[in-house]
């Protein structure tokens, strides 16, 4: 005999009504308006990111930069995270705290940091000027964006890999070594499969974050335009809201697709 409290349907509706209203007002309606907006200038506006050379170039540059940042972040994050998880030494927690400190920095501050290092008045420019090489700067192009995105994303990867490697079953590695497996064989047969879910999840998040990053790109993208800056220019400088909405839809669909594929292949979504 059940003695638990069984709420009525009216009570359940009353409890979910505020959340439903908030969801409809601040997500459903804006997204519906965003999707419908390009239709006012013709259905071809939805494909502008593929049919217009400037927007296609911006998309491809964003994709290339995001992929490069994701691969570099996963490689460096895995190496540092696994090392921190396996090695115990004095100051380890302090080092981990320092490595993950940039998690608290917004993108604008990360961009400002890079300008202080590699901008026109930065440390690199002062050093190369003293050496007689002129004032070398690389903060405002592809190299600057890559380093800034990497700096912004790497702490997340380090934290994820450190936690995942620390939770691994050490007996698997011991068993492989007892069977005569070399270090590379252990890494291939034990470490890679165990860390694969973390790699997929972390890689998808890093990619999605890089695709949609605005603060860092706004600070540094004087010579290299990415899609978030293109969207910003369209609705701010040219008041072309339909085209900005179309580019936003393309950006959102790509990042959503990557996140869904990561969930599916990591086993967190139904096949």
UniProtKB/TrEMBL annotation:
Location(s) in or outside the cell: Cell membrane
Record-linked SUPFAM superfamilies: MetI-like (SSF161098)
One function term, GO molecular function aspect: ABC-type sulfate transporter activity
Highest taxon of the lineage: Bacteria
ABC transmembrane type-1 domain location: 59-262
InterPro entries named among the record's database cross-references: MetI-like (IPR000515), MetI-like_sf (IPR035906), Sulph_transpt2 (IPR005667)
A Pfam family reported for this protein in Swiss-Prot or TrEMBL: BPD_transp_1
Main location: membrane
Keywords, ordered alphabetically: Membrane, Sulfate transport, Transmembrane, Transmembrane helix, Transport
Protein name (database record): Sulfate transport system permease protein CysW
